[in-house]
């Protein structure tokens, strides 16, 4: 019976304590909401101003995500202080320092990606729209957040690569300076005039829209002497900042026009040479075929 009485007294004590602090909790909720709206307004204003001035929107998006996380932490601590739980707030801060080591071991990869995201926010080797390759994945940069970077491959797949992996592995950016080189090979017959063929190729390449003409003009060179043809390699540069031309379409036009120009000027394309050896002198290949 005494135990039941003690439980009732404790419940009554808790109830009275809750009623006494209820106004403070209500005030804390209202103040926290007001501070939250104010912080959100400030963050949105800063993001708006930064997005207009920043050259790379990825940096603005990244720090906006960091700002959201910090706002949530500040609002939780602010609520505890207003309610009067300063000791709990202090304990949380103290425990956060200790738990950082534990969480760091438990979530090492997440922490690594977060720190890598911060490093790349200040010194990042790509921008939105850049064509990159990392860890065997090639595509266009779409977005970067605290944990990973989103890449859209050329066949339409969305790949999310952890920031730590981008920071640690070799990284190729094909378009950061605005230039991208492509090439293709074409073979001519051994009886053709090589100098004439190269001159025709050069003139044709300089007339194709989308290929850079002055700063990085197209070139061609003899690549190898094959079994049945002389292989000529044609190299040209594209302006990756110019969205009026598709790299694949430019390459298709270049191959087609070079081929047509060579044929129009009597530069023959090679055919495969097949060597037939007859080790039995008693058999005639021509008679056998007939």
From TrEMBL:
SUPFAM superfamilies in the record: Mechanosensitive channel protein MscS (YggB), C-terminal domain, Mechanosensitive channel protein MscS (YggB), transmembrane region, Sm-like ribonucleoproteins
Domain of life: Bacteria
Residue ranges of domain Mechanosensitive ion channel MscS C-terminal in the record: 184-269
Topology with respect to the bilayer: Multi-pass membrane protein
Signal peptide limits: none
Cellular compartments annotated: Cell membrane
Family: Belongs to the MscS (TC 1.A.23) family.
Name under which the protein is recorded: Mechanosensitive ion channel protein MscS
Organism expressing this protein natively: Arcticibacterium luteifluviistationis
């Amino acid at each position: 019976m005494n135990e039941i009485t003690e439980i009732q007294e404790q419940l009554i004590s808790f109830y009275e304590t809750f009623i006494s602090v209820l106004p403070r909790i209500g005030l804390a909720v209202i103040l926290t909401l007001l501070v939250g709206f104010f912080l959100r307004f400030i963050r949105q204003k800063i993001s708006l101003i930064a997005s207009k001035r920043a050259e790379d929107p990825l940096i603005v998006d990244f720090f906006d995500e960091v700002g959201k996380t910090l706002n949530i932490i500040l609002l939780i601590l602010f609520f505890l202080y207003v309610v009067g739980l300063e000791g709990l707030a202090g304990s949380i801060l103290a425990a956060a320092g200790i738990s950082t080591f534990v969480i760091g071991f438990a979530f090492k990869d997440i922490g690594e990606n977060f720190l890598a995201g911060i490093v790349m926010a200040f010194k990042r080797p790509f921008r939105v729209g850049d064509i990159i390759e990392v860890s065997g994945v090639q595509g266009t940069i779409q977005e970067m957040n605290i944990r990973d970077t989103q890449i859209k491959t050329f066949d339409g797949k969305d790949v999310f690569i952890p920031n730590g992996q981008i920071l640690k592995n070799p990284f190729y950016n094909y378009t950061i300076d605005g230039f991208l080189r492509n090439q293709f090979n074409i073979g001519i017959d051994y009886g053709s005039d090589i100098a004439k063929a190269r001159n025709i190729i050069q003139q044709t390449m300089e007339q194709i829209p989308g290929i850079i003409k002055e700063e990085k003009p197209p070139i061609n060179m003899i690549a190898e002497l094959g079994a049945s043809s002389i292989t000529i390699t044609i190299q040209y540069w594209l302006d990756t900042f110019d969205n009026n031309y598709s790299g694949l379409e430019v390459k298709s036009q270049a191959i087609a026009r070079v081929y047509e120009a060579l044929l129009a000027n009597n530069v023959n394309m090679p055919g495969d040479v097949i060597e037939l050896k007859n080790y039995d002198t008693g058999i005639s290949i021509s008679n056998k075929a007939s």
